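Homework help board

Subject: predicted structure for assignment chain

Our instructor gave us this sequence and asked us to write out the predicted structure in token form, then describe one feature. I got the tokens but I'm not sure how to describe them. Can anyone check?
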Amino acid sequence: MRLGTLNTDGGSRAVALQDGRAAELGASLRELLAEGDGALRRAVAGAGPGQPFEPSRLGPALPDPGKILCVGRNYADHAAELGNHTPDRVPEIFLRSRTSLAGPYQDVYRSRASTSMDFEVELALIIGRPGRYIEAADAMTHIAGYCVFNDISYRDFQNFGSQWIPGKNFDGSGPLGPFLVTADEIADPFDLDLTCTIVAADGGEQEMQRSNTSLMVHRIPDVIAFISQFTTLEAGDVIATGTPGGVGFGRRPPRWLEPGETVVCRVEGVGELKNKVLEEPRSNP
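My token output:
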């Protein structure tokens, strides 16, 4: 199944994609996940044929997660390009806020506070079955599905201090989607190609990142097991598994996102994000 959130005139609605049409599910996706797989499948089965929809009206696949946990330096080439070592013993974890999320085809605004706007294609997973002290051997059974995530980062704010949180939490800087692809549709999450391409205003393309999830330093079961030692993972929580090498900050000179460009992030079998970069209006408070 492919599940997501559609912004309608009546508010946000959880939907299932069926034959290119969006069928409303009658509750938020997080609520449906919390009720269990059976409830979710019953909601999809009873949703009807669905209606045509505009992909541009898709919101973040899961717009209201309880927690967004992100893994830093989880690909060796990315750690190296930043002049860092990969964390050997346990994964590096930082948090994102709900307000930092964006839709899969939504315009993203380069903040007037910074021009060092960077891109990071990632595979994200969504927790379905909650748990604490989850064993790595059992971790995959807690995953409801997968999304594509672009961990857009403002590198100057990220490096103002020892904490990464400011540079990782600008409003609307984390496109997530386009849909939650349920775990049963992804045969091997440890062998998925990831790419990030920048499309110029004139249509010219520059591939910036290309890698595979097989190159993660800390694999998904170990990440879940570690996180669940210090916090209860709940239905609807998001875990972003890290980005490979090729980011703008790792290049000389740095390659930042510019207004007018479109950043396209793809994960094999999961989908594609396509976000145009605009300058933040000066009229914002």
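Reply (TA_rk): Your tokens look well-formed. For the description, you could write something like this. The CA atoms of residues 132 and 236 lie 15 Å apart. That's the kind of observation they're looking for.
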